[in-house]
Amino acid sequence: VLEGVRLSGAGTAIKTLQGGNSCRSPTSFYGRFRHFLDIIDPRTLFVTESRLKEAVQLLEDYKHGTLPPGVTNKELWGAQKIKQAIIHPDTNETIFMPFRMSGIVCPNWWLNQSHNACVNYANRNATKPSPTSKFIQGYLGAVISAVSIAVGLNVLVQRANKFTPATRLLIQRFVPFPAVASANICNVVLMRHTELEEGIDVLDSNGNIVGSSRIAAKHALLETALTRVVLPMPILVLPPIIMSILEKTSLLRSRPRMILPVQSLVCLAAFGLALPLAISLFPQMSEIETSRLEPEIAMATTSKTVVYNKGL
Description:
Helix content: 55-70%
Largest sheet: 2 strands, antiparallel
Oligomer: single chain
Strand content: 5-15%
Family: Belongs to the sideroflexin family.
Strand order of the largest sheet: 1-2
Shape: globular
Structural class: mainly alpha
GO molecular function: citrate transmembrane transporter activity; monoatomic ion transmembrane transporter activity
Order of helices and strands: EEHHHHHHHHEEHHHHEHE
Subcellular location: Mitochondrion membrane
Number of helices: 13
Number of strands: 6
InterPro entries: Mtc (IPR004686)
Radius of gyration: 22 Å
Protein name: Sideroflexin 5
Distance between the termini: 25 Å
């Protein structure tokens, strides 16, 4: 049984696809990893509008028990993959193509952090409307702070003349991780600060909205921020280790011109691994005990736990 496969947005129960492989269960890290490999599949960027409508209709037919004869589990999973990669789970609206998780590639700091800001906004918890002015404020704050942190740390190290060359080189290699991680955290928090102010909807086991919780919003942003800390780890750690080994091989020693393309492929592979690993740390629909939320939330339901969309 494939558990926990969300077939529609907020306010609906979590459904299951029967008779398939159990490797995509959101209750396990591996299940979430397999799930998010589907979500970031770049092929979903080229799905046509008609194909998307077919996928959504197929899932609706499944939910209402009106599937046409001959539909296989593979077709259902394919439809599920398309919908979850393109449709926002709260609003049921199509996410603009460059800002989907499957479109996360940018060339420089400003464009990168601008792109991150739009990705964070597009994949936020959208149970509450957000005015354009809030988006602009969040975007400017997120991009300016993120770029300032990243560039500032690198400039600070380059001007640290009192360090020995060896120490400076070591610090320069270390700085990119805290720079990228702290910039990513700022980006997430500032782009989604409205959730902290207004709270996010929490749902009971039947998918009914219990209320709006600021505490759940804090948990959602904390979990998302932690994924942004983990995200650069494989990208910044794995390529230097792998290249230090490959550069000692006879192939690259005799063909030094191949070092750059090989390093590019290694970095690309590390990035492809890093994204699903990071966003698989927590399920998108996270669970929290009602006793940890606001008193009015706890009194509004008999459920011991509620769920909320933490965003991606």
